[in-house]
Amino acid sequence: MSNNDNLKLENQLCFRLYSLTKLMNRHYSPVLKKLGLTYSQYLVMLVLWENNTTTAAISVKALGEKLDLDSGTLSPLLKRLEKQALLSRLRNSKDERSVEIKLTTAGCQLKALASGIPAQMFSVTGMSLVELHTLNAQLDNLLASMNTR
Amino acid sequence: MSNNDNLKLENQLCFRLYSLTKLMNRHYSPVLKKLGLTYSQYLVMLVLWENNTTTAAISVKALGEKLDLDSGTLSPLLKRLEKQALLSRLRNSKDERSVEIKLTTAGCQLKALASGIPAQMFSVTGMSLVELHTLNAQLDNLLASMNTR
DNA sequence: TGAAATAAAATTGTGCACAACTTAAATGCG
DNA sequence: CGCATTTAAGTTGTGCACAATTTTATTTCA
Questions:
Q1: Mean pLDDT of all residues in A8-13
Q2: Where are the domains positioned within chain A?
Q3: Average per-residue pLDDT in chain B?
Q4: What kind of architecture, by CATH, is found in domain A12-110?
Q5: Between residues 85 and 144 of chain A, which touch chain B (CB distance below 8 Å)?
Q6: Closest by alpha carbon to B146, among A5, A135, A45?
Q7: Which fold has domain B14-112?
Q8: Which neighbouring-strand residues pair with A103?
């Protein structure tokens, strides 16, 4: 590739990632709309569903670390999910700086409605399971590299 | 992978793409800030720099097709770039529905300041050129699949 | 102990991305 | 021709993402 081509749109990895993320979102949106969720809200619910009870709590801070999002993004998003009665937000009495997030019963129940989404989205990719795992591993490497430079 | 794991965050391709796109953006932002550009504005400039003159024009429509963005995103973004005197917006006299975008002299000149960005960002990925091309090809396949389902 | 430093959320402001809609212009076709 | 249809931009409203700042609580350590 000549130096003249470095700035061509078609040669940018970042543009492919950007386009794919938008395209992924467009495939998820109509499916998630049936659950009343946006894509980002779905990611939050995925974390909460991993401890699928109304008793387990996770702080906004820990949620932010898992999802790589700050309180500026999470605070209003969590308020919207609370308004939908999918989760509760409660100050930690041991440390009043922290806010603990718990699923409500409705939030727990929503998991069942989401159970078919991963398979449905996988079929949209047109990939085999092996290809998926290979790509996941490559992207993990790239994430690791870019997090340390 | 068991069915129980389908909804785990760590198993989602979409989350990797989402995280990578955000991470990519964070690497670009401080670099682009020196040019007074956001990441999306940079993508628009990449398209315009491919015909690096003040005479070539591209319609908002064509720009939207290249970048996969609609007028709701592009109209305000292009106004901001016009305010920065990097481009001009002019109704097409042959078809008054269309608005034609042209680089200004300053817009053309900015390309030189951006010339080192692709190499700089490539180094952040930690990949070899072969790895980059392989990944680009895989992502192109994925984009093609997801655009037809 | 108590002032300085650190930490967690929330708030404010900017700029996307996109759905839904409006406006104005061009096209098509009976 | 004339009217319905289509097309291109722009507008409005919602929800992120994130920088910068504020508020309140906790920790540190002289």
A1: 96
A2: 12-110
A3: 96
A4: Orthogonal Bundle (1.10)
A5: 111, 114-115, 117-119, 121-127, 132, 135-136, 138-140, 142-143
A6: A135
A7: Arc Repressor Mutant, subunit A (1.10.10)
A8: A87
